[in-house]
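#struct-help
A.M.: can someone run this one for me? Single chain, 181 residues.
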Amino acid sequence: MRIPEITKTLQIPEDVKVKIERRNVTVEGEKGTLTRDFSFAPIFIKTDGNLIRVWAEWPRKKEISLVGTIYSHIQNMIKGARKGFSYKLKIVFSHFPVSVKVQGKTVLIENFTGERSARKAKILGEVQVKVQSDDVIVQGINLEDVSQTAANIEQATKIRKKDPRVFLDGIYVFEKNEGMN
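D.P.: on it. Structure tokens below:
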């Protein structure tokens, strides 16, 4: 038996402006503006004063899960526009000193396990990457771009064809925060 409606409501903070046009959600806050298109989803999104309502009528399992997913995406957009997101990664090496540089939209990891060619990781969107001694700080307002950039850096230093219990070199995420410094 299907339920007639599934609804989730979200409170809009006072320092954030939300505009919804045909399932295109734009969130404007102190850190910046984020826009996302949810036109692929068979759900409804509407603002009522300082509330955002996400709902589906006579939903199947897919629509029920989409309501929760889109609710979470809008929630993350509001957090990003207000405070931003920050990931910290630690550079770990045992023998060969690794040097990390930011060059345009790529992160260059040089001398990783003594390799001659540099490994590269792509920086997505409007994300800033800073290198401070043995830490790499990834900051931005879009959670998906920040987390994917951190994952790209971590995956660029994945060791293949060697025992991972012995060769522990790499760049690893050790801290995730809301808010940029």
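A.M.: thanks! The first helix runs from residue 61 to 82.
D.P.: also worth noting: The CA atoms of residues 130 and 137 lie 5 Å apart.
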